[in-house]
Amino acid sequence: MKKLSTLALALVVGMSLLFAAGAPEATAKGEQITLNVWHIGVDATRRATMEKAIARYQAANPNVKVVDQAIENDPYKTKLKTAMGGGNPPDLFITWGGGWMEEFIKAGKVLDISEQVKSVAKNYLEPGISISMSGDKIYGLPITCGPSSVYYNRQLYDKYGLKVPTTLAEFEHNCDVLKANGIIPIALGNASKWPGAITFIYLSMRYGGAQVFIDAFNRENGKTFEDESFIKAGEKIQEWVRKGYYPEGMNGINYDTGGSRMLFYSSRAAHIIQTNGLLGNCINEAPDFYKNNLGLFKFPVIEGAKGSADEIVGGGNVIHVYAGTKYPDEAFKLLVTLSDLEYGQDMIDGSRMISGVKGIVINDPLIQQQYDVLMSAKVMQNFYDQYMPPALAEVHKDTTQALFGLTMTPAQAAKLVEAKAVEVLGPAKK
């Protein structure tokens, strides 16, 4: 079976300002055309960044009208699947790379832009372009790219004399001190399942090392999703739940509507384990907290275990061109504009998100810290639910949510994931 690559932070391709291919005859005569774009940049700053880039494109291409739709994460997934199945997807759309992208590539829905990308040379970050690839072909360009971190409240750390932890034992000590003083150690809104899965992924990587997941996914070296690293991750999560590290009713709290973030911003909770998107959320929703309280650190290592601090969980959004678009040249030009240097600078300045293009000027120390983590990582593992085919990803998310809810044992969860993996990916090989 062909391997998918998220371990590699490899292959540099780049970009110039525009793809110079000729336009179709109809548009050369000035015919007005429309390109539809779907994305998940629903917050004000990401939406403004997207709209500014679209305005630049339309100014340079007055015969093209661009209609964009910003849709929340989970509804977006449902809408895109339906549109793809019905044969009426937008001209440009985003995925998270990995299994989502692969499913659409296999169905012939994504334009291979490998040749066009060669003509836009030089400026994409290696991790960003790697999530746009399948095999040695490129199917999109990155519009966000960054690591997940443990975000913490610096004022609470100062108040209780806590130090930034590097080991899980040190992190647990901090959580115990905070809990004893009436502070929720870790904010979590897990109604949509993926927020808690970030912690599960990090724990499984810290116990077993990143290669275990890759081997289990590729059904190689005898590794399966019942490996002890996955079971130990579930055991640690349930230990933390029983110790009261999480808010009551966390599986009913919606991260997308801000429930867990409000616990964090109000200092009722001391940590939140989240994607790099938390920076943009925080500066928009709680700018004083961002300035005075917010800090971040790498997910701690487990002493004596195989995982490394330089194995990070991360990912981002890739923007693609629909293979059936009537206007592939115009769509590719728009693709470039929606991922170019000006777009990337606006993303950093407005949303505090790394976009995947080189040349960004970073003035914010928190973003610089995130950027340094990204660029020094030996491994950037994409989120399991984005890397896996959707059917397997759903079982992963369901069982992880059940672990947090204490309604399933870690062994039972691992068994269910492995059973679905056998069904979807085939049996493991020695």
Q: Radius of gyration from the CA trace?
A: 21 Å
Q: What global shape is seen?
A: globular
Helix proportion range: 40-55%
Structural class: alpha/beta
Instruction: Please state the average pLDDT score.
Output: 90
* Main sheet makeup: 6 strands, mixed
- Helix count from the secondary structure assignment: 20
Low-confidence stretches: 1-29
Task: Please give a quick description of this structure.
The chain is built from 20 helices and twelve strands. The protein has 430 residues and is of the alpha/beta class.
Name the features.
alpha/beta; disordered N terminus; four-stranded mixed β-sheet; six-stranded mixed β-sheet
Write structural notes for this entry.
The chain is of the alpha/beta class and 430 residues long. Helix content is 47%, strand content 15%. The strands form three sheets. Strands 1, 2, 3, 6, 11 and 12 form a six-stranded mixed beta sheet that branches. The protein contains 20 helices and twelve strands.
Q: What is the secondary structure topology, with strand pairs?
A:
Elements: H1 25-28, E1 33-39, H2 44-60, E2 64-70, H3 73-86, E3 92-95, H4 98-106, H5 114-118, H6 126-130, E4 133-134, E5 137-138, E6 141-147, E7 149-153, H7 154-159, H8 168-180, E8 184-187, H9 194-208, H10 210-218, H11 228-242, H12 259-265, E9 269-274, H13 277-285, H14 287-292, E10 294-297, E11 311-321, H15 328-337, H16 341-351, H17 365-376, E12 379-382, H18 384-387, H19 390-404, H20 410-425
Helix pairs in contact: 2-16, 9-10, 9-11, 9-19, 11-20, 19-20
